[in-house]
Amino acid sequence: MGALDVYVVETKEQRKRFVTAILKDMKALDLMLERNMFERDNMRIGAEQEFCFVDKHLRPAMIGLEVLALLDDSHFTTELAKFNLEANLDPIKFTGDALSRMENQLYGLLQKADQIALDHGARILLTGILPTIKKSDLEFENITPYPRYHALNDAMKKQRGGDFEFNIKGTDELVTKHNSMLFEACNTSFQVHLQVNPDEVVDKYNWAQAIAGPVLAACTNSVLLFGKRLWDETRIAVFEQTVDLKNLQNPEREIKSRVDFGSSWLEESITEIFQHDVAYHKLLLAGDVEEDAMEMLRQGKVPKLTALSLFNGTIYKWNRACYGITDGLPHIRIENRYIPAGPTVVDEMANTAFWLGLMEGMPDNIGDIANLMDFDHAKLNFIKAAQMGLGAQFRWKDGKRYTAQELILNRLLPQARIGLEKMKIDAHDIDKYLGIIENRVLNHQTGSIWASQSFTELRRTATVEEAVVAVTAGMLKRQQSGNPVHTWSYATMSESGSWENKFKHVHQVMSKELYTVQSEDQIALVTNVMNWRKIHHVPVENEDGEVVGIISSADILKYYCKKDDADDDLTVNDIMTVNPITVTPDTCTIDALKIMRKSNLGCLPVVKNKKLIGILTEFDFVYMAEHLFEELSNIEAKDNHII
C-alpha cells in the first residue's frame, strides 16, 4: 500500500475504475498460473519485524519518524503510530544457514535502530503489546502523518459509522470504545514469509491454516492491555475488533470481518481467496493504477498486479496469500501474520523455525484435508490458542483431542524437524531453535505466561500502574540479555525504577475501582458502602457519569453531630459538597497534593472529558510515601556502602 498514492473511494467512477483494475489483475493471475509463469526453483523466506519505542519512564516514545530519518536505511519503514517502526529483512533462499543469517541480520538492524533511539533517550522493545500503553497514547495526534494512514482511518470510520468498540474478556475484562483505528497500533508482530511452489500452494495454504492454532499457542506474547490480563494473544482480539466494520446504523446486517481466519478449505486454486474477498468486502481505498495487467501479459511482460495487491492489503487474514516479483520472476508466498513480536530475537527465530519446519514437513495426505479435519475445528483451535495459549486443547486431524503440550511435543516438533532437514537447514540451527520451542513448552513459559505471572505476583503488594511498569522494565532488561523467555525469572518491583516511573502523574496513583452514588440516594446506602468497602469518600455522579458532588465520612459525622434525631429520609443531596474541585489524569501528582493541602481536601475526583474515571485520596499519598521512603532508604544504604 505504501508504494501507491491511495485515497478513500468517494465516487462511482473511482469505484468502477479500480474494480475494473482488480478484475483484470485477477484474470491475469489465473492466466499466469495456467501458463506456469511462477518461480518454482528458488524457495525464499523473509520477515517483517515491528517494534515499539519506550522512553526512560517505559512509556511509548513518539520518535518513529525522527529515528527513521536518521537511519536512512531502506530496510526500515513507518508503522501506523509514531511510537512504532518496521524493519524488513532481505528475502533469502531457504536452505543451509538461512535461519542463522536471518537472525544475524535482524540483530544488526535492531541494534542500529536502538542506538539512534538511545540518542533520543529511548530504547526499542519487542513485545506483542506494550504493557504500559494507555488509551491517551492512541489519540489521533499520534498517528504517523502520512496520507495513506489518514485515508485508511477515514475509510474505516466511514464504513463503520461510529466509534470502534472493544469487549475482550480474559482473567480481567476490557470494555471500551475509541474514535480512531489507532487502537490497532497497540499490536506489534513478527511476520514470517514463505515462498511456495505454485503446484503446492493450495495444500500449503490449507496446512498453514491447520497448524495455526498450535503454533500460536507456543508463541503468545501479549496478555496485558491497559493493566488488564486478557487473552494470551490479545493482539488477535484487538485487531479483529478494530477492523470489525459492522455498521452501527444497521447492526442486524451480517458483515464479514476484514480480519479473518477464513471460512473453508481451499479446493482448487489460491485465487479462491481473492474471489471470496472481492465478493464480500467493499473497497476501502483505491489508487490510480496505470498498468493494464492483461495487456502486459500480451506483451510478454510480468504485471505487478497493483490493484489486487492494494485491495489484498486491506484484508487482514492471519495467513495471507501474496503475489510478488523477485529478480523479474513472479512468485506466491504465504505470510504468517499472527506471531507476535518478542520476547527476544532468538525467541522470534525459534517461532520462525517451528512454523517454517512444519510448513515444509507437511504430511503427504493434506490434499485430502477436508476429509481429515473439519475447517471449523482449525478455526476454533486458533481462537482457543489466542485465548488460552499453552492452556488450550485442540481437536487434531486424526479426530482426537490433545493438550497444546502433547500436540506440540509429540507430534509437531518432530514434524518440524523433518521439514527443516528436508530443506537442508544446518543441524546446529535446527537443534538450537527447535530446542527453544521444546523447553518453552516443557517449562510452560511463553512471553504471555511470564508477563501474566509476573503481574499477578506484583499485584499482591503493588498498584496496577507499578506492576505494568515493573513488567515492562523486566521485559526490557531480560530482552537485552538475549536469553530466551523460558529461562526468565519473574519481574520484581525493584526493576521498575525511580518514583517518576510510578507516581509522577495522577493516572499512575489514582484509584480506578470506583464506588459512586447519585444525589437522590439515601445516606444509609452511603454509610453502608463506606463501611463495607472501608473507604471515606464517595463521588456523586449524575446519569451521564459527570461528577456533581462528593460526600465524605467527615461530612456525615458533622451532619449527625448537629442533629438530635436520625432522619431516615436523608439523601446524598442534603449533605454532599457540590461542584467539587477535580483534576485530570495527566495532572502532576505534586500539583494534586498542593491542591489538596491548600483547600484542605481529603480527596480529588479525577475526570476526563467531564466523565469520572478515578479518585485520588489521602490513602494514596500514604501508600506513595511508604514507597518513597523505601526508595530513599535504599539510596542511603548504597551511599553508606560506598563510604
Automatic annotation (TrEMBL):
PROSITE patterns: CBS. SUPFAM superfamilies: CBS-domain pair, Glutamine synthetase/guanido kinase. GO terms for molecular function: ligase activity, forming carbon-nitrogen bonds. It comes from Cryomorpha ignava. This is CBS domain-containing protein. It holds the Pfam family CBS. Keywords: CBS domain. Residues 510-566, 576-631 form the CBS domain.
